[in-house]
Each structure stands twice: as C-alpha cells, then as structure tokens.
Amino acid sequence: IDDLAVAGRLPGIGAFMRVKNGADFLEATIRSHLPHLDEIVVVHNQSTDDTPAIVARLVAETGGKVRGFHYAAKVHPPGSPGHAREPADSPASFVNQSNFALARTRYRVAMKLDDDHLAMDGRLAAVVAHIRRADYRLPEVLCFAGINLARDESGRLGVLAADPFAGAGDHFLFEVTPTTRFIHNPRFEDFHHGRQRIFADFTYWHL
Question: Do the beta carbons of residue 40 and residue 119 sit within 8 Å?
Fold first, then answer.
C-alpha cells in the first residue's frame, strides 16, 4: 500500500509494461501510445535482445515520459510450474514484478499494457478523453481488447479469421487505490481492485 503512494499521485494516466525480449514490437507500441498518456513505465526482466537499448533510447528521447526499470531477479513465466509454486511476494514471482511495475507509476489512473499492442489512435483517444473529463476518478475498471493481426503464407497482413479478438478483460485502465494489487493465481497474475469491470472498447492491434 505504501509503495503505491496513492495520496501523492498526480492527475493523469500512466501505463506500465512488463517486458522480456520484446524488441520486435516494443518501440512501435510505445510510440503509438505516447500521444495519449502522461507516462509509460517499462519494467524489463533479463532480456537478451535489444529491449534494454530500446528502453534507454526512448527514456533519453522523451524527456522522462518513458521511464525504464530493470527488474533484475529471474522471474518464472506465467503458466510455468515455477510460477504455480512461487509465493506472490517472492522476487522470482511474476506477481511481484507486476506489483513492482504498478508501484513505479505516478499518476492517478494506471493502464496495463503489453509490448505487442499497437494503439488504435481514435478509439484509444476516445477512452482517454472520457477519463480526463472525469478528472481521473473512475468508479469502474475499464477493460479493453484488441484485434489479432497475422501474416499469411504470402506475407499479406490481415485479421486472424479463426481467432480475431485478443483479450477478454485482462487489460484495463483503473484508478489506483490502496487496495489495488496483483495477487497469485497458479496460472498467471490476478488483478485485485474491488470495483466492477466494464468493457470500454477495442483499442489496439495485437501484433
């Protein structure tokens, strides 16, 4: 609770990302979301690709609007046997990494964001405008989803016909409160907030 510093949070919206080897789409994701947000916090974990260099460059380029942190402990990936048995407060738990990332945000509203989400500019802008009109006070958790993109055998880009939609309420915008946190689930990290979840819109292309 103390780590969230709820009383001192600024009016605005800050996204947080948990990244491991996300270099393929990380920069495009960040750049597509930057016009809509007040900060993007990137917490990368033992990446062996160009993720750290991309984060460092964007931190320098954006004057602090992108903020980067290296979560140094080896983390068990969601769905793994290690994750299933690891306590939520262990440095090796993805739950702990998620709470660390959330605690690094500085704004009243936070957004869970993945490194392969390319913003749908107009749709995301409309959701963000709603939040700003409400002075960053949200009675509900605003869930959003995406559209799955893929290339066919000839390299043409399109929507996956068999599985067009990405996400079913597992990405969201929310007002940070003293009870906001991630908790352990044997398969992944569960989000605990205490407020009703409602669907806001499709806001990203899932790369």
Answer: no
DSSP one-letter code for 9: P
Residue 18: closest CA among 85, 76, 102: 102
Rounded (10°) angle between helices 26-33 and 51-61: 30
Q: Is the pTM of this model over 0.90?
A: yes
For 73-101, the pLDDT digits (tens) are 999 999 999 999 999 999 999 999 999 99
Q: Is 69 helix (H, G, I), strand (E, B) or coil?
A: strand
In the beta sheet, which residues pair with residue 201? 144
Which residues lie below 8 Å from residue 19, measured CB to CB, with a gap of 6+?
26, 42, 43, 44, 45, 47, 51, 55, 115
Nearest-CA neighbor of 205 among 121, 125, 126, 112? 121
pLDDT digits (tens, 9 = 90+) for 177-196: 999 999 999 999 999 999 99
Helical residues (DSSP H) of 62-162, grouped into ranges: 81-85, 94-104, 121-133
Residue 106: both structure tokens together: 């500085």
Give SS3 for 150: strand
Q: In b/e form, how buried is each residue of 60-77, taking b as 16+ CB within 10 angstroms?
A: eeeeeebbbbebeeebbe
